[in-house]
Amino acid sequence: MGKSVLKVSARGQVMCCKVADDRTHPSIDREFHCLQRVSTAGFDPPLRIPRLCGVIESGNDTAIGILITNITPNPEIPRLGLIDISTVALSRRKKWASQIEEVVEKLHDIGVIWVMRRRTISSSTGVTILG
Q1: Global pTM value
Q2: Per-residue pLDDT at 5 exceeds 70
Q3: DSSP sequence for 41-81
Q4: Exposure string over 114-123, b if 16+ CB within 10 A, otherwise e
Q5: Which letter, b or e, does each residue of 27-46 get, where b requires 16 or more Cβ atoms within 10 Å of its Cβ?
Q6: Which CATH number fits domain 1-72: 3.30.200, 1.10.150, 2.40.50, 3.40.50?
Q7: Mapping DSSP to helix (H, G, I), strand (E, B) and coil, where does residue 13 land?
Q8: Taking the CB of the first residue and of the last residue of the chain, which one, N or C, has fewer CB atoms within 10 A?
Q9: CA–CA distance, 27 with 123 (Å, rounded to integer)
């Protein structure tokens, strides 16, 4: 089996392509519907999450994948998992938590619940910034 998440070029832009197979089809279908709901909600300013750019169909008009905006990490900014959180000021950690909670609340307001499968994330909103 090949990769199911690919970096691709479509319409002259770099995008993320998630291809469904028997194992991933339910989660990709759910992600499609969640992103579609976010798109039609028309948040202003838009939420800082990937946007749905398209659907990939097979020759018989069956959806086999989705195209979403590609999120390219800034190499100068480390991922949260790599930061020694005890060295980050409490005010900054509170700001991060507040930003995440704001997005989560907006998603919940339109019935979108994103599930994180990582064990380090907890709390009623799925947000924990340790320290």
Answers
A1: 0.72
A2: yes
A3: HT-SSPPSS--EEEEEE-TTS-EEEEEEE--PPPTTS--GG
A4: eeeeeeeeee
A5: ebeebbebbeebeebeeeee
A6: 3.30.200
A7: strand
A8: N
A9: 23
